[in-house]
Structure formats: C-alpha cells, structure tokens
UniProtKB/TrEMBL annotation:
It is found in: Nucleus. Gene3D superfamilies: ph1033 like domains. The lineage of its organism: Eukaryota, Metazoa, Chordata, Craniata, Vertebrata. This is Thymocyte nuclear protein 1. Specifically binds 5-hydroxymethylcytosine (5hmC), suggesting that it acts as a specific reader of 5hmC. Residues 10-27, 57-66 have a biased composition (Basic and acidic residues). Residues 74-236 form the EVE domain. Residues 1-66 are annotated as: Disordered. Keywords: Nucleus, Phosphoprotein. Pfam families: EVE. GO terms for cellular component: nucleus.
C-alpha cells in the first residue's frame, strides 16, 4: 500500500482493567488537542432539538416498545485528515484519501490499544461504520464505510520502518489486528462533534440513545462500537439543518 500507517489508537488511554495494556508515548501528543476541542465546544445542557421524542416514538412503534439487550453492531472509526508526522511519517488519512484508494478500499492499520484491537476483532463482514475526522480543527463524522474483510494480522507491527512497529510482537502470535474497510457514501452533511455532544448531554438527562455513547465516555479510543440506536440516531441528524 502506498499509504503509511495512519489509523491509530496510540492516543487511547490504557484501560486500567487491562494490566498488559501499554501507554504509547504519543498518547498525550495526539489526543490532547481533540480533548481540548471537546472541552472548548462543550455546549450547555438542555433539551435536545433533534426531535428525539418523535424519533423515540417511531423506534418504539417499530420495536413494540420493548428494550433489548445492548449489542454493538456498528462502529465509529477515527482518522486524522490533517498532516502530522509520527517518527518522520505523515499519518494523515482523510476520507478523500480513502476514496482515492483502488476500489475505495484499504486496510485499517496502526491500532495499538488493546481495547480498540478487541473491537477490531469483533467486527463482522458487512457491518457499517462512521468515518470520523479527528485531531483536527473541527472533528466530526463525514462518511459511512463498511467492513469488507474481518480481522487479520496488522503487517505494520513487523515493519521496523513503520511508526507503529512493535518489537514485542511475534509473527507466530501477532498482538495487533486490522480490518479492511470500503467507502459507502458521504453523509448528507458534516455532523460535527459539538452537535453530537449537545444531544449526548440532553440524552443523559432524558434517557435518549446517546446517553452512554462511547465517543464521550471513552473519548480517546479511535475504534468505538455503536449500538443500533446510537447509529440510527446519529444518522438521522444528517437530515436536519445544522443548529
């Protein structure tokens, strides 16, 4: 592949429940900017203007109003659309870069966080994900992609010239995995982090579908699962005029 490793989770904070998780040196460098942006764009708590109540009624009507066990069947994948050098290699990879790939398909490599890796390994063929621009001036969702190849060893862990090289990983028992993703379509409009956060805060108060969205409870993970309700609700935002 002509593109360097770029879809990283080096910025993820190691889960304290995972004693073998390592904290990469680039954690604070790559994710502090995004964390600061989230703080600076923190909206006031209040009622969601998203039509949440109407959306809720529609979904309850479809499901008979019964709550089902939480399962994750969709994903959110973070990638950096702006140039940033990591060990001399530009890790930039935007949605335009994906669209420029042969068959608009590429491998999602460079993930070096254990929880994010486990999420990669849980992905199933055909599942859809939001392509999220992170660590940039205005982070947010720009497109939808789908999983076209399930988890297999990430070759960059064995490449000494790659910024994500891991000298402790062995080919007979690779530590890190990747999947292949393919571009599906652009969202009808850019859905910014600040807008999603407004709904998240409102839903925390009124019990909406984004109340536990991992984008805000585990902000630093670059691979995040979404429930069907979370995915559907965020997708419904593309039909609304930005506030």
């Amino acid at each position: 592949m002509p593109w360097p490793s770029r879809k990283r989770d080096k910025g993820a904070v190691a889960d304290k429940k995972e004693p073998d998780a390592k904290i990469a040196k680039t954690e604070e460098e790559t994710e502090d900017k995004e964390e600061e942006e989230e703080k600076s764009t923190k909206p006031p708590a209040g009622s969601s203007k998203s039509g949440w109540k109407n959306w809720k009624k529609t979904k309850e009507s479809d499901s008979g109003g019964e709550e089902s066990k939480i399962t994750y069947c969709h994903w959110l994948l973070k990638s950096e659309p702006e140039s940033r050098l990591e060990k001399g290699v530009d890790v930039k990879f935007s949605i335009d870069d994906l669209k420029a790939q042969p068959n608009q398909t590429t491998f999602w490599d460079g993930v070096r966080n254990y929880q994010a890796r486990n999420f990669l390994r849980a992905m199933k063929l055909g599942q859809q994900a939001f392509f999220y621009h992170s660590n940039c001036k205005e982070p947010g969702i720009v497109a939808i992609v789908k999983i076209v190849k399930e988890a297999y060893p990430d070759h960059t862990q064995f490449d000494q010239k790659d910024p994500h090289y891991d000298s402790t990983s062995r080919k007979e028992n690779p530590k890190w995995s990747m999947v292949d993703v393919q571009f599906v379509r652009m969202t009808k409009r850019f859905i910014p982090l600040s807008e999603i956060k407004t709904h998240h805060l409102a839903h925390k108060a009124d019990g909406g579908p984004l109340k536990n969205m991992m984008l805000f409870t585990r902000q630093r993970l670059s691979i995040q699962p979404l429930t069907q309700e979370e995915f559907d609700f965020v997708l419904s935002l593309e039909e609304e005029k930005p506030h």
